[in-house]
Each structure stands twice: as structure tokens, then as C-alpha cells.
Amino acid sequence: MRDGMTTVVKICGITRVEDALAAARCGAHAVGVVFYRPSPRCVSPSQAAAIVAALPPFVSVVGLFVDADAGEVRATVAEARCHLLQFHGSEPPEFCAQFELPYVKAVRVRSGVDLLQYAHAYRDAKGLLLDAYVDGTHGGTGTSFDWKLIPRTIPLPVILSGGLNPQNVEQAVRAVRPWAVDVSSGVEAAPGIKDAARIAAFMSGVRDADV
User: Fold this and answer.
1) CB-based contacts of 180: which residues, under 8 Å, 6+ apart?
2) Which residues share a beta bridge with 31?
3) Which of 54, 5, 4, 55 has its CA nearest to residue 28?
4) What percent helix, strand, coil does the chain show, rounded to 5?
5) What are the boundaries of each domain within the chain?
6) Residue 141 pLDDT level (bands cut at 50, 70, 90)
7) CA-based angle 144:35:56, to the nearest 5?
8) Its pTM surpasses 0.90
9) Is 82 a known active-site residue?
10) What pLDDT is attached to residue 144?
């Protein structure tokens, strides 16, 4: 949690160069590329590399993995040239920390999940990404969770995800005061296809909350 700072924005599930550029033009700080094959937003390492190459400076590219093996992560990162890793499965801390890149760890939040324990276990992470728990999925569902389940004392930067969209992001930022927000389906015209107008509206909601 933080006050008095600009909320960082990541637009996840980017599959096209034009969508990455639209996110950058709207002021997004990062874009996410998904390397989880069951996802409708999955891209190949070469597609991700094209996105990385097209972006202007100071926009980070985050590579998302779900329970991939270490060799796959290394090979993908070597080709795609991502700047940061995001682990969305059951990867233990020692797995996440072995790739010589900073990482964030996603947690699917529901009643009974101890977020302080997660923060302690993944204390080498750059942040905890808090997403909604939906059985059998690993994010991108457009489902939110009860923000009251988030402790005020998490010792890592909080990245709020799960069901965010242009209509509710201002309320979410004001309620949680996260370090960052992460959106995917909430700014889409179709799975993996972003809507530039919805990205702009989302960014406007974040800025309104930061005032």
C-alpha cells in the first residue's frame, strides 16, 4: 500500500504490436505477454520479441508463465528479451528466483489465503500480484475479489488485478492504494485484442484516483 504516488499500470495479455503501442501512448508503464499455452492470449517467443522491439524506451515487458519448466522459461526469455517475469502458478520461491531477472508472484486471493505468509515466502519478489481465485483458471477471467481481504501491512508492493475495468478502477485504486494495477480482459474488444479507447478510459480512471 502507498499514498501520494502515481499508480503504475500494466496492460497484460498483449498479442499485437499495435496494442502494445496503444498502451504505451496512453501512458502504461508496462505490458504483459502470456506464455501459457491454454490461454487465448498466449504468444510465441518471437511474437513477444517483436513487441519488445517495437516499444519506446521506459516501457517494461513482463513475461507471464504458469508452472513452466525451467528450461522453457530460460529459452523463452532468451528469445523474447522480457524485462521482468511473472509467475502465475504454484512455483516455489527458489524456482522464481533462479533466472537472473526480477519477478513478481501472483496469488489467487480468497478467504483463508494468508497474504502475509506469501509475502514472507516470496520476499525476494519485486511484488505480489493479487488476482481473483477462480477454480481451474490462472487469471484473465474478468472476475474481482473482496479487496477487504488485503492486509494493510503487506511488506511487498501490491499489484492489484482481477476484474478491473474502466468503470471500477478508480474505486479500486482509492480503496486499496496499490503500487500498481494490472488489467487484461477489462480493456479488450475480444480475448487478446485490446481496445485503445478502453485503455485510455482505464488510464483516466487511474489518474483520477491518484488526484
Assistant:
1) 7, 8, 9, 10, 29, 127, 157, 158, 159, 160
2) 11, 61
3) 55
4) 35, 20, 45
5) 8-210
6) low
7) 90
8) yes
9) no
10) 84
pLDDT at 132: 87
Classify 8-210 by CATH class. Answer: alpha beta
**Concatenated DSSP letters of 127-163:** -EEEEE--TT--S-S-----GGGS-TT-SS-EEE-SS
| DSSP for residue 7 | P
Q: Which whole-number Å values give the CA distances from 25 to 19, 20, 64, 77, in the listed order?
A: 10, 9, 22, 25
Active-site residue identified among 19, 131, 135, 210? 131
Q: What mean pLDDT is predicted for residues 44-59?
A: 98
Under a CB-based contact definition with an 8 Å cutoff, are residues 201 and 166 in contact? Answer: yes
Query: pLDDT tens digit string along 23-41?
Result: 999 999 999 999 999 999 9
Q: Calculate the average pLDDT of the chain.
A: 94
- Pick the catalytic residue: 12, 26, 82, 96? 12
